[in-house]
Amino acid sequence: MTEAANRTETFTRKPRVAYFSMEIAMENDIPTYSGGLGVLAGDTLRAAADIGVPMVAVTLVSRAGYFRQEIDPQGRQIEHADDWDPARYATRLQATVALDLEDRQVWVGGWLYVLSSRANGGTPVLLLDTDLPVNDPRDRDITDFLYGGDEAYRMKQEVVLGVGGIAMLQALGFNLMGYHMNEGHSAFLTLALLRRFAYPSEDLRPGESPYDLPRVRELCTFTTHTPVEAGHDKFDYTLVRRIYGDLLDLGTVKLLAGEDKLNMTRLALNLSDYVNGVAKRHAEVSRKMFPGYAVHAVTNGVHASTWTSLPVAVAYDQHVPGWCHEPELLSRADRIPNDTLWAAHQESKQALVDKVRNLTGGVLNPDLPILGFARRMTAYKRADLLFTDLARLKAIAREHPFQIVMAGKAHPKDDAGKQLIEALHAHMRELAGEIPMTFLPDYDMELALLMVSGSDLWLNTPLRPLEASGTSGMKAAFNGVPQLSVLDGWWVEGCLEGVTGWAVGEDSPTANGHDAIALYDKLEKVILPLWYDDRPGWINVMKGAISKNAAYFNSHRMMRRYATEAYLR
């Protein structure tokens, strides 16, 4: 038996939940993720391994990665290929499966990667790959580019992910007790399941559906992440017929996925018994977007050991033993002596200061507070809100000096996001000599950990209600870094004013226009004076972030919710 077969067989002996996601962050050096969705998927699978929930993940190999980001002297984003070799990290699967796309056969192979756990072995991840010599040259790159190409390319990817993933799991002998779609990209898997569970034609009465819809629904879980209608994938039926002509009869598909276009989210909603948003507020927004569907709320969480800096983890090990396996134990963070927690934070902060110097040549002062902001650079995230009134920002800094560290990538086709990055660099030049500011290029998991642990205050300023959840503030909480955020996403649940962090403005969609003033007021009158004048009071807020946010908003709690409510229902 080959090594691949041996490794695969160890994971096929017990029933598992198949978790489908277009992107999964497995390691920093494996560029199979673009941002929060992929990082969350990785944290989900790590938590599953930690607490013993049997899962197998399916994604694309994304050989060309997302992209490496360079920033030119004018502040413009330049994208570079970020190729990687799966053979360095994963084991080639022996099985291949065939799909019919555009009236020709496309073979799908793959790789096995194991997200390891110190407790329970690990979670297998199947990386589907069409770069096979047997394939037509037109098809060998289908699995190469994460979120790349045109609409036809995206649809081929989603057919490979959903339909090819189902076929590969079967070919490898996995015994599956359910299927979890992380966003709508993999919803074609429901059509593959309907074909599998079709009734024999001789058992049907006139007018009856040939497909066992209740059986498929019973098997499927769907997590939606997008509170904006435009963010849900839709495909013209002419394109659908051209690419995937052998799908179910068109009448059935239109009933399930929409009359005008094939809506991947509608397809997943109609064929899943358990549907959830990723925060309580997001579930409310989703129920309004998709009336008639029961949308539960399972608020996101982050993986404890992955997102805690080493100095802080050492302090936890000493004063809250077992936190890594039971993050809820961090509710006892008040046990940590103030000096110990502050020293751990300062060590994490120095690591960020050193990284800034090495990457950009910028010099930050570890004795001054650092405001951190890092996430996908797109308009609704409002990375530029802090710079609405530069005169007032400078006036605040003269009274209480502070520094700013920012990072984030804009999608290559998001011109507004790219312009936002340019605008941030223009602000940096305008603030030079008064407020130290730096923008770290090529934001990835390594930079994220340095920033969420080395900043003193974490900023999040999206337009309400467009932040489904957001998890960077949760990562900051694991490092005792309080958050200043708009009340949207998970922060509606996590914010205890002055205890875990602070809110920007009111909890109302109409408050967006007043957020800049509210942000400045909170910095000037509350946050910076506390940091400078009341160090024990500041450390109390750090401990509040740990004990009340990190102890709850972690992937172990999230995974237990999925296991008990979705998988074992």
Question: In words, what does this structure look like?
Answer:
Helices cover 39% and strands 17% of the residues. By secondary structure, the protein is of the alpha/beta class. It folds into two domains: 3-301 and 559-567, Rossmann fold; 310-553, Rossmann fold. The strands form four sheets. Strands 1, 2, 5, 6, 7, 8, 9, 10, 13 and 14 form a ten-stranded mixed beta sheet that branches. Strands 17-16-15-18-19-20 form a six-stranded parallel beta sheet, with helices on both faces. Strands 3-4 form a two-stranded antiparallel ribbon. α9 (280-289) links the parallel β13 (274-277) and β14 (295-297). It is globular, with a radius of gyration of 24 Å.
Describe the main β-sheet briefly.
Answer: 10 strands, mixed
Strand content: 15-25%
The second-level CATH architecture of the largest domain is 3-Layer(aba) Sandwich
Q: For the record, give the distance between the C-alpha atoms at the N and C termini, rounded to a whole number.
A: 37 Å
Low-confidence spans: pLDDT under 50, at least 5 residues? none
| Backbone shape | globular
Helix content: 25-40%
What is the CATH top level name of the largest domain?
Alpha Beta
**Cα-atom radius of gyration:** 24 Å
Superfamily at the CATH H level of the largest domain?
Answer: Glycogen Phosphorylase B
Count of structural domains: 2
CATH topology of the largest domain: Rossmann fold
Question: Quick check: average pLDDT?
Answer: 94
